[in-house]
Amino acid sequence: MAKQQKLIPDEMNYAREVVDVSVEQELKESFLAYSLSVITSRAIPDIRDGL
């Protein structure tokens, strides 16, 4: 039997170009998204918490 080749889907080839972004701007955007996620998932009481 011949070995089957694993084909990589086109979605896996996502790194086609490099985009220069300042570290400061990337940290601002990433931290904002992270902090909003934490606030909505942890800080705001949920009915499932039994409060």
UniProtKB/TrEMBL annotation:
Gene Ontology molecular function terms on file: ATP binding; DNA binding; DNA topoisomerase type II (double strand cut, ATP-hydrolyzing) activity
Name of the protein in its database record: DNA topoisomerase type IIA domain-containing protein
Cited SUPFAM superfamilies: Type II DNA topoisomerase
Species: marine metagenome
GO process terms (BP): DNA topological change
